[in-house]
Write a structure and sequence with these properties.
The chain has 338 residues and is an all-beta fold. The protein has one domain (2-336): Porin. Helices cover 3% and strands 57% of the residues. The strands form 3 sheets. A 6-stranded antiparallel β-barrel has the order 14-15-20-21-19-16. A two-stranded antiparallel sheet has the order 8-9. A two-stranded antiparallel sheet has the order 17-18. It starts with a strand and ends with a strand.
């Protein structure tokens, strides 16, 4: 259900019910449309839009989609998403003789997690409990002539309470994300070449007291943002990724990317989207490996699209000695939207 009206000169609206939520940076939260069941939420959001300012607020509980009957999904009150965002569009400008524009976002996004979703890693496994994460972030993104850019930072606070004992530990983690690139003017291939860097703080998995320094992103980033293979996730990770993207036709886009991965803290584990990896040996190194990857996206028409992903994840020597191994990943998505 959605209702709209004008208030104080703004286009204002209120939405209530089951819905997808995408109004957050794609490196922080996405709808997990591929290769898994899309995320959906039950609750409300409100918005107000002026000429150069937009304000959004929301409060959701996750949809419980574990039912085995149609139309029987309910609410999962152990997982919550809430917050607000303010976006300002500064006046347009000119750079290198071309038009430029940008947006400045300031946001707060809160998570409440419990059970396996709220668990933290230990040296021998995981510790369950309730996990509250408060994300305060800023992001500046736009285009300055042929230069496209996005720079953002998030500080993640909160508290973790161990199950049964209710012992509490504060959270103090952070993430820094940026992509800067150059789009070749008057190029028939619309070539874009850039550098993407991401830092997600790590902590100490042996510690049972003090602040928790491991950043978490429970509602995974966009599939192709960080690592096409999804072997890596946004925890205890440093990523450096040159990339080139061309658009030979209006409906076809090709991207080649070469990310390299390190641990932010050697006192913390290597993480995947479902938790921390466990290796047969001791991984004491910092360099995890690299994952050269390519994607081809074809928007066939309004309703049909076809996307191909291929990547070779090459583990580092130290990770191989600890029990890790390299692998090749391929995924093909044929999507019908209605």
């Amino acid at each position: 259900m959605e209702t709209r009206w004008n208030l104080f000169g703004a286009k204002t609206g209120f939405m209530f019910g089951r819905q997808q939520f995408l109004d957050a940076p794609s490196y922080m939260l996405y709808n997990r449309e591929t290769p898994n069941v899309p995320l959906s939420w039950d609750g409300f959001r409100a918005y107000a839009i002026w000429d150069r300012i937009r304000i959004d607020g929301w409060n959701f509980v996750q949809t419980n989609d574990s039912q085995n009957k149609m139309f029987h999904d309910t609410e999962n009150y152990s997982t919550r998403l809430y917050g607000f965002d303010t976006t300002w569009a500064p006046p347009d400008f000119r750079f290198l003789g071309e038009r430029g524009y940008s947006f400045v976002d300031a946001f707060y996004i809160g998570y409440k997690l419990s059970g396996s979703a709220g668990a933290i890693a230990t040296q021998t496994g995981t510790a369950t409990g309730s996990n509250t994460r408060n994300n305060f972030g800023v992001r500046w993104h736009g285009q300055a002539g042929p230069i496209e850019f996005s720079v953002g930072a998030v500080w993640q606070g909160g508290v973790f309470r161990y199950a049964k004992t209710n012992v509490a530990r504060n959270v103090s983690a952070y993430a820094i994300n940026s992509i800067v690139g150059y789009r070749v003017p008057k190029d028939s291939l619309h070539t874009f070449a850039g550098i993407q860097t991401d830092v997600y703080s790590g902590g100490n998995d042996a510690s049972k007291s003090g602040d928790i320094g491991t950043y978490i992103s429970p509602f995974n980033p966009q599939t192709n943002y960080l690592d096409t293979t999804t072997y890596m996730t946004a925890s205890n990770l440093i990523s450096f990724a040159p990339l080139v993207r061309i658009t030979p036709f209006k409906s076809v886009s090709i991207q080649i990317k070469y990310p390299l991965f390190w641990r932010d803290s050697t006192n913390d584990r290597v993480y995947k989207s479902s938790g921390a990896y466990s290796f047969s040996g001791n991984f004491g190194g910092k360099f995890i490996g690299m994952a050269p990857q390519a994607s081809l996206a074809w928007q066939i028409n309004t309703h049909l699209s076809w996307t191909q992903y291929v990547s070779r994840f090459m583990t580092s020597r130290a990770l191989n000695e600890a029990g890790g191994s390299s692998g090749t990943y391929y995924q093909s998505n044929f999507v019908f939207r209605f």
